[in-house]
Amino acid sequence: MSKVRVCFLGTPEFAAVSLKEILNDEHFEVVGVVTQPDRPAGRKLILTPSPVKELALQYGLKVLSPESLKDNVIICDAIKSWGAEVAVVVAFGQILTQEFMDSFTFGAVNIHGSLLPRWRGAAPIQRAIQYGDRETGVALQRMVKKLDAGDVLGVRKMEIPIDMTAMELHDKLAFLGADLLRVELMDFLRGHLVGVKQDEALVTVAKKIDKLESEVKWSLKAIEIHNQIRALTMGPGSFTWLEGKKIKIHRTRLATTFQGDTNWNIKTQADLNNYLLDYQRRKKSEVSEAGKIISITEEALTVKCGDGNLEILELQPESRNRMKIKDFLSGSSLKVGDRFL
Fold first, then answer.
1. pLDDT tens, position by position, 155-183
2. What is the CATH number of domain 4-206?
3. How many CA atoms lie within 13 A of 54 on its CB side?
4. In angstroms, rounded to a whole number, what is the distance separating the alpha carbons of residues 339 and 341?
5. 84: helix, coil or strand?
């Protein structure tokens, strides 16, 4: 089989990993790349090309960076002139029309950062962590007009460790996605692989992350707060308030110690009623004290949550760099009993 001519569409580093895999594979010829336009970046807001564009230019590839492909006849005609046989789409960031996808002999395929049909949508990596999934992966799918609903051609799975952040998971999944292009994509193009339809009853939607989700609500369970902070490391991050100043929280750990139930010897209905009243009183007390710092060491600040305790390992005060707790304490008068709001 001669080399397959590929049009690659992608934007961030996650996509650049896949593009590099295709460029280094003798079975493919990348005839052109489509990516998002240069965007302002850094404190000086300097226009910066996407990671995919930077890589494509290093290899001397044709690159187009339209604001939108929809109804852009000139750009679409230019892409068609490349003579690509398949479109490979990885975190491109724009909606493709059915007409555009049908313009390629083998259609369009997509690497998606979840085990479809779970977490279709814009933020699959973050939502998997936020909702406490213990397993995730990547899926290679045939693209259709409906978002992330195409037949699945292959998957790669991995466990999510309890302390792994979304950024760390992102980097792992990027390489798993590239491996799908190396193996399953070629099997599909050779006619050796038939896609599996997704079960619509199992669909969950990974909606786009909203900045309003960033503020920590200490009345939640410790595990929920921990998962939120891990999930939002890809942006926009998580923050809380201390003495009227915003504090970003970068890394946490579930506390290994907790206050368990008092020792109740329940023999009668009255005993049970008293136990339930005591439990409710203690839980109400925990919620009312949520956000209180109950322990300080050089490694961690232990904070009471609505249920359980959470250790803060790395944070960032206003107008300062990210730091470990030891460094934060050297310039702080923080004490047990102080409270995050």
1. 999 999 999 999 999 999 999 999 999 99
2. 3.40.50.170
3. 13
4. 6
5. coil
DSSP 8-state class, residue 51? H
pLDDT digits 0-9 by tens, 75-124: 999 999 999 999 999 999 999 999 999 999 999 999 999 999 999 999 99
Contact indicator for 223, 115 with CB cutoff of 8 Å: no
Residue 237 carries which side chain, given as an amino acid letter? G
Tokens representing 295 are 């322990």
**Cβ pair 194, 184 in contact under 8 A:** no
DSSP string, 128-171: HHHTT-SEEEEEEEE--SSTT-SPEEEEEEEE--TT--HHHHHH
Confidence of residue 318 (pLDDT cuts 50, 70, 90): very high
- Burial (CB count <10 Å: 0-12, 13-18, 19+), residue 339: middle
Q: Can you give the pTM of this predicted structure?
A: 0.88
Neighbouring C-alpha atoms within 13 Å toward the C-beta of 255: 23
At 227, is the secondary structure helix, strand, or coil? helix
CATH fold, domain 211-329, is Methionyl-tRNA Fmet Formyltransferase; Chain A, domain 2 (3.10.25)
**Cα(90)–Cα(105) distance, rounded to whole angstroms?**
19
Listed by start position, the domains of the chain span 4-206, 211-329
Q: Which DSSP state fits 318?
A: T
Residues present in the chain in total: 341
Burial of 71 (0-12, 13-18, 19+ CB in 10 A): exposed
Virtual torsion, Cα 39, 45, 47, 51, nearest 10 deg: -60
